[in-house]
Known about the structure:
9% of the residues lie in helices and 50% in strands. It has three helices and eleven strands; from the N terminus they run ααββββββαβββββ. The protein has an eight-stranded antiparallel barrel with strand order 1-4-5-7-8-9-10-11. A hairpin with a 5-residue loop joins strand 9 (136-151) and strand 10 (157-168).
Amino acid sequence: MGIFSRKSDTATAVATLPAQVDPALAALTGEYTIDPAHSSIGFTVRHAMVTNVRGTFGSHEGTLKLDGSEPANSTASIDVDIASVDTGIADRDGHLRSGDFFDAEAFPKMTFRSTRIEQLGGEAYRITGDLTIKDVTRPLAIDLEFQGSATDVYGNERVGFEGGTEILRSDWGLTWNAALEAGGVMVSDKVKLTFDISAIKAAA
């Protein structure tokens, strides 16, 4: 069963009985802080038309407010430090931080603020919200799968989500490119974003 409760199977039951909430799901309701040490926000982009370059943003923070019975009442908020971009190549990371791409000095944060959360079925959910990169804010939908909940060895109550989405970087003003002699461009417009999130429930 997913993190959020589901509708009753019959209209009669909905009409005549109070809403039944699975206690295990209701227990997950609350505010959670994303644990950056056990979470990852990454991206994949096509390079020179022949291979993929992968990277991560090593510094980020965020909160999840989960409602175990009404997913529409849940929210998500994430702030990412642009300067923490890491593709494993220092020169390339410096180029990404420059004005050609993110301009990290002028726009140090990439942010996401949810506006809607819905269950797609089973453990799958879609979070729709506003993604801001540089000075451009556009809507974005992220599909996530609930990975479960557990109490870790330190007594922290955790939940996990995993998923991703695709964007066109040009939609957020990231338009730098270079033409290749054989045709095509150095960096694809399409970028895959991936999220592996572990979040800790705040003490009551």
